[in-house]
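note to self: the first set is below, dont mix up w the second
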Amino acid sequence: MSLEPLLPAGCREALAVVDRYYRTAGSTELSQQAAATEAYQGMMRASVSAEGAVHAVAVALSQDFSHMRFILSGMVSGDYAAAQARTNRDAQTLRDVCGGS
């Protein structure tokens, strides 16, 4: 009998948000904006139950998703590709902090 490894608090929820974002972002600005908005909201909820390093990365990711949605909506100017690259790095950090999930 094998047991599933215990993930740090908040990992399961935060990882689910990241996975959902990558599945739904699509290739159009509208789909990317909708996915970033949903991910921002989900990551904010996930950060509530997260602790320590997971909390810090979840907060950073929520800021990343928020920034991307503001760029795509035209509310702020910025380089969407650079914002996406930062989000990708933070998502990898989350996976690392959560045990390589």
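second set (the one i keep forgetting abt)
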Amino acid sequence: MKTHPFNWFATIITVIAVSIWLFNSYGKIHSEHLTEATISEKTHDEDEYYIEVDGKKIKVKDTSIWMVLEAGEKYELTYEWYGMKKPYVKDINQAHDEDQIGGSH
């Protein structure tokens, strides 16, 4: 059976496209940093805790942090996600809080 060069070319292009899609969807961690994020809502489902910021539902892994956060307040927030996972809080601090930079004596 003789193969046509177009079949090899199409197969190579398909493999490359699928590889790029898989890497971007599952191999790459996406991150976003917000400096003036206002929490509009706090919710929880059984053992999972969430905040809603700019219309996005973001998971808070540490329940003690979730308990301290207040709806309507502004925070400096960094969150990450990869693949089909829900975004989760990586770092959060009060907006314009200078204590994190250098500390005090």
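remember for set 2: The two ends are 80 Å apart (CA to CA).
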